[in-house]
């Protein structure tokens, strides 16, 4: 009996110690309920937080953990992330009641939507906090310095928000902090010195911010294991890492660091991962032998020069080596790879390197990625590649290979080769039968610009990208239909393919982004099944012998941005739906066909249009007044991605191989995009030329020449301020040249020849400072060619065939009374000086669109900025010079 009593008593005591005591502390329960009351919870994740009956015990709530003995809340995780619906998580304000939970050790609020509010200061009073995760939480404003009060904090992750301001220096003095991630914010200013040597931080990630100036010295940072500061604006030389004996991962890429790689880095014997790409580092490739553990080395896109020393071959754990886009020279031979047996990724592209690899004796490594673009590998085919039986990505383009492709290479395709680029060699021969191959993982094939010939039978059925352009392939296109399953990019241009276009496009499952069949011998009609390609962004059918009308089904292809059907025998009217449905179009080229009828005013809906070429057709009627609706021709346009079309293909970037770090989940330079840049074939200053890449998105041109258009030039056209080329020649246009033509101040090429224009040449034409091609010949213009201006700089042929035109450069002199140029007397002074400035300068003065763009190379972003700023400089020079000369002239006259 007493035994039973004792047991009962023990049970009660046990209950009180364990379950009983652990029921939550009322004050903390109220605080949590207050937190809940202040936020929205659309997913109902906190439904079991309440006051009724069984909901009373806050230690049993989801997302809350209490301490077993004290009953205090020690963990709180208000995070919710749903991949497909990121906005169903928590939002709202954070109640200051949270401070009551002062025993909290772990707090995670990632993906909580703070709606651009700042991080609450009161977090600084949760003095027992060890872990604080608030990434992807739509935070803005500065990092509160109160966080430095969290003297027990070990882990702090505030990445991927919009935090701004500078990093509080006090964070560097937090004695417990080991893991600090502030990546992907808008933090600016300098990194405080406290983050260097004195800090206790082990993992520091400041990537993708706006941090600048030089990095602090890390000398003596014995605890640091990983440092990621990529994609900021750090300048100066690489910091000192002397004594950072624990450092294993170092990413300084995407900054503006200069100078050499310091010795202190070369002695980091535990370094595994070193990425310094996209900086301005120079010198020769240093000796990395001191980095015994180095397995990942990316020195790409810097200014390293000279030979690659054999010592690289002794960095025996190397797995990934990227030296691309430097100025390295000399020969790469077996001696470079004697002990590198684990090499897997090799990129030596875009240097002046030659390869002398042979591997007759033994093969040191099995590479999966080989990128040797623009290395000198030819003239024979580089046979050592045969030894690389696990290769998935092979780029040996532009490598001076004159040979044919050995069979063993084609045989690699079924066993794992996913991307092959042989472009821009002089490789000859036929393609073998490769049908019925089912390759995995977005395979792509680029054989462009070689001497391949013959018919194309069957290609691997799962290709996602195929480029056969610039060869001598012939036969029909029936093989294309076999590729319907996955193809996103198809370029067969500049070959001798013949026969009709296949009619199987409805099988392409809306994936195709670019279709280029230009410059072949294709005949027949445009099949209406092409209209099923509703992801199609660029359609090139130029220079074939296609007939019939443009099928109305193409109005479904609403993603189309670039359409070139020029140089065929297409007929019918220019359909109204082009304007109504294809609102993304920026290039529309229908030149040299047999289109007839009027210009539909619906074309004016194309507000993105930059290039309109309808020349050499049978169009009649007026030029619609609404042409001023071509907004993109009236404004500076920064949407330069219009000419880029990204498609899917096997991705040979190494991002997937980077060490496990939260970091490479980031978007941005980690991922290489396969994309195609448009190329437009345009008549420019009298000759046809192609506009590609960097220049096309800046070209704004209208060509309606060689039609039967009549009526006047609508004045509205003079509001297309950014127009660079206007060709209305060979029509039956009449009336006067618009008085305000001078408003088109970037016009470089202006052709009104072979029309019936009458009246005077407007004075404002001489204000076109960049005009370097002018043709007004064979009209009925009369009077004096505005004198004393660059209009005299053009050859007389620019004015010929206008019997009533007089004055230089034409021989007929004008009568004694100068032809009245309607000018206000007040303007006379300025105008005279303007004239004298221009005299003698002639047409050659203008630098112009091509002059500027043609010379520019390098980073596309810079190129655009440069172009834009140059066009402002153009204005500035113009204004400054005019003002200066007019002042000067007034001075002399006194
Ligand atoms: C931070 O600590 C300082 C002194 O250690 C104290 O004065 C201050 O009130 C604390 N701030 C917060 C937000 O707890
Ligand atoms: C293939 O190589 C050429 C020349 O080096 C390059 O321009 C092209 O972009 C490469 N193709 C692909 C799909 O990467
Ligand atoms: C100008 O374009 C817009 C669409 O971009 C269209 O709605 C409008 O009707 C056009 N105006 C004229 C006069 O065609
Ligand atoms: C304008 O078009 C005509 C006919 O298409 C062509 O002969 C001439 O060269 C073009 N003018 C310019 C400046 O390109
Ligand atoms: C040419 O212009 C003159 C006026 O300058 C006019 O009298 C004449 O009829 C015009 N000729 C033609 C063919 O249009």
* Distance linking N and C termini: 132 Å
The largest sheet is: 28 strands, mixed
Shape: globular
CATH superfamily of the domain at 522-645 and 677-818: Ribonuclease Inhibitor
Mean pLDDT: 84
The total count of strands amounts to: 58
Describe the oligomeric state of these chains in a short phrase. Answer: single chain
Describe this structure in words.
The chain is of the alpha/beta class and 894 residues long. Helices cover 12% and strands 23% of the residues. It has 10 helices and 58 strands. The strands form 8 sheets. The chain has a 28-stranded mixed β-sheet, with no helix packed on it. Strands 29-31-33-35-37-39-41-43-45-51-53-55-57-58 form a 14-stranded parallel β-sheet, with no helix packed on it. 44% of the residues are buried. Residues 8-21, 656-672, 817-847 and 851-894 have low confidence and may be disordered. It binds 2-acetamido-2-deoxy-beta-D-glucopyranose (NAG) (5 copies).
Structural key phrases:
alpha/beta; 10 helices; Leucine-rich repeat, LRR (right-handed beta-alpha superhelix); globular; 58 strands; 894 residues; disordered C terminus; binds 2-acetamido-2-deoxy-beta-D-glucopyranose; 12% helix
Element layout with pairings:
Blueprint: H1 2-22, H2 26-37, E1 39-40, E2 64-66, E3 73-77, E4 91-92, E5 106-108, E6 131-133, E7 140-141, E8 155-157, E9 162-163, E10 179-181, E11 188-189, E12 203-205, E13 210-213, E14 226-228, E15 233-234, E16 249-251, E17 258-259, H3 263-266, E18 273-275, E19 280-283, E20 296-298, E21 303-307, E22 320-322, E23 327-332, E24 345-347, E25 352-355, E26 369-371, E27 393-395, H4 407-412, E28 419-421, E29 428-429, E30 444-446, E31 451-455, E32 465-467, E33 472-475, E34 489-491, E35 496-500, E36 514-516, E37 521-525, E38 538-540, E39 545-548, E40 562-564, E41 569-573, H5 577-581, E42 587-589, E43 594-598, E44 611-613, E45 618-621, H6 631-634, E46 644-647, E47 674-677, E48 679-684, E49 687-692, H7 693-696, E50 701-703, E51 708-711, E52 725-727, E53 732-735, E54 749-751, E55 756-759, E56 773-775, E57 780-784, E58 804-806, H8 828-838, H9 848-855, H10 860-893
């Amino acid at each position: 009996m007493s035994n039973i009593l004792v047991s009962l008593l023990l049970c009660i005591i046990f209950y009180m110690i364990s379950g009983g005591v652990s029921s939550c502390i009322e004050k903390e329960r109220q605080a949590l309920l207050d937190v809940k009351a202040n936020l929205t919870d659309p997913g109902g994740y906190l439904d079991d937080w309440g006051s009724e009956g069984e909901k009373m015990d806050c230690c049993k709530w989801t997302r809350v953990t209490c301490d077993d003995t004290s009953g205090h809340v020690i963990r709180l995780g208000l995070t919710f992330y749903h991949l497909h619906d990121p906005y169903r998580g928590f939002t709202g304000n954070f109640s200051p009641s949270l401070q009551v939970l002062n025993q909290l050790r772990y707090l995670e609020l990632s993906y909580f939507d703070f709606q651009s509010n700042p991080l609450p200061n009161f977090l600084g009073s949760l003095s027992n906090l060890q872990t604080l995760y608030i990434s992807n939480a739509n935070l803005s404003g500065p990092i509160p310095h109160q966080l430095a009060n969290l003297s027990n904090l070990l882990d702090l992750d505030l990445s991927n928000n919009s935090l701004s301001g500078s990093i509080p220096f006090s964070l560097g003095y937090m004695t417990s902090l080991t893991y600090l991630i502030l990546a992907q914010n808008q933090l600016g200013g300098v990194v405080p010195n406290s983050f260097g040597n004195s800090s206790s931080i082990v993992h520091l990630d400041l990537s993708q911010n706006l941090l600048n100036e030089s990095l602090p010295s890390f000398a003596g940072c014995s605890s640091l294991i990983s440092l990621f500061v990529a994609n900021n604006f750090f300048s100066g030389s690489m910091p000192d890492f002397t004594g950072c004996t624990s450092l294993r991962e170092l990413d300084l890429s995407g900054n503006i660091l200069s100078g050499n790689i310091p010795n202190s880095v070369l002695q980091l014997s535990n370094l595994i991962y070193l990425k310094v790409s996209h900086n301005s580092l120079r010198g020769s490739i240093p000796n990395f032998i001191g980095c015994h553990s180095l397995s990942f080395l990316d020195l790409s896109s810097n200014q390293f020069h000279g030979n690659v020393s054999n010592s690289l071959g002794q960095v025996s754990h190397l797995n990934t080596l990227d030296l691309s886009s430097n100025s390295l020279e000399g020969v790469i031979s077996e001696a470079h790879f004697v002990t590198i047996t684990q090499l897997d990724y090799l990129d030596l592209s875009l240097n002046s390197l030659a390869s002398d690899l042979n591997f007759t004796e033994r093969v040191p490594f099995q590479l999966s990625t080989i990128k040797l673009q623009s290395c000198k590998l030819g003239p024979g085919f580089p046979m050592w590649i045969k030894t690389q039986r696990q290769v998935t990505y092979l780029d040996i383009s532009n490598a001076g290979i004159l040979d044919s492709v050995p069979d063993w290479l084609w045989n690699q395709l079924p066993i794992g080769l996913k991307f092959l680029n042989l472009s821009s060699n002089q490789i000859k021969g036929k393609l073998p039968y490769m049908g019925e191959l089912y390759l995995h993982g977005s395979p792509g094939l680029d054989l462009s610009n070689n001497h391949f010939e013959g018919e194309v039978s069957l290609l691997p059925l799962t290709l996602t990208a195929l480029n056969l352009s610039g060869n001598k392939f012939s036969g029909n296109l029936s093989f294309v239909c076999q590729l319907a399953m996955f193809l996103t990019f198809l370029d067969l241009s500049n070959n001798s393919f013949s026969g009709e276009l296949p009619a199987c496009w409805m099988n392409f499952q809306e994936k195709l982004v670019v279709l280029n069949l230009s410059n072949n011998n294709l005949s027949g009609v445009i099949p209406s099944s092409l209209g099923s390609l509703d992801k199609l962004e660029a359609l090139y059918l130029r220079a074939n012998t296609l007939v019939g009308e443009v099928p109305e089904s193409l109005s479904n292809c609403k993603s189309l941005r670039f359409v070139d059907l020029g140089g065929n025998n297409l007929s019918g009217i220019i359909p109204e739906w082009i304007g109504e449905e294809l609102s993304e179009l920026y290039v529309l080229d229908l030149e040299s066909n047999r289109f007839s009828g009027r210009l539909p005013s619906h074309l004016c809906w194309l507000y993105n249009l930059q290039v309109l070429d309808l020349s050499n057709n049978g169009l009649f009627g007026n030029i619609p007044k609404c042409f001023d609706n071509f907004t993109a021709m009236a404004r500076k346009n920064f949407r330069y991605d219009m000419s880029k079309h990204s498609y899917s293909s096997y991705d040979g970037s190494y991002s997937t191989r980077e060490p496990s770090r939260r970091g490479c989940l980031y978007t941005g330079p980690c991922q290489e995009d396969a994309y195609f840049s448009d190329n437009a074939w345009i008549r420019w200053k009298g000759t046809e030329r192609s506009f590609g890449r960097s220049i096309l998105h800046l070209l704004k041109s209208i060509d309606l020449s060689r039609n039967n258009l009549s009526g006047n030039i609508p004045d509205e056209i003079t509001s297309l301020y950014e127009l660079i080329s206007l060709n209305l020649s060979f029509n039956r246009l009449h009336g006067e040249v618009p008085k305000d033509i001078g408003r088109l101040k970037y016009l470089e090429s202006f052709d009104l020849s072979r029309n019936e224009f009458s009246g005077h040449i407007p004075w404002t034409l001489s204000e076109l400072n960049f005009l370097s091609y002018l043709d007004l010949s064979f009209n009925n213009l009369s009077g004096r060619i505005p004198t004393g201006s660059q209009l005299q700089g053009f050859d007389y042929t620019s004015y010929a065939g206008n019997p009533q035109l007089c004055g230089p450069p034409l021989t007929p002199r004008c009568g004694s009374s100068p032809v009245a140029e309607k000018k206000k007397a007040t303007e006379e002074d300025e105008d005279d000086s303007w004239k004298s400035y221009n005299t003698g300068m002639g047409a050659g003065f203008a630098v112009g669109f091509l002059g500027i763009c043609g010379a520019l190379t390098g980073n596309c972003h810079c190129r655009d900025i440069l172009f834009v700023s140059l066009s402002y400089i153009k204005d500035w020079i113009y204004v400054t010079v005019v003002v200066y000369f007019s002042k000067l002239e007034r001075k002399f006259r006194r």
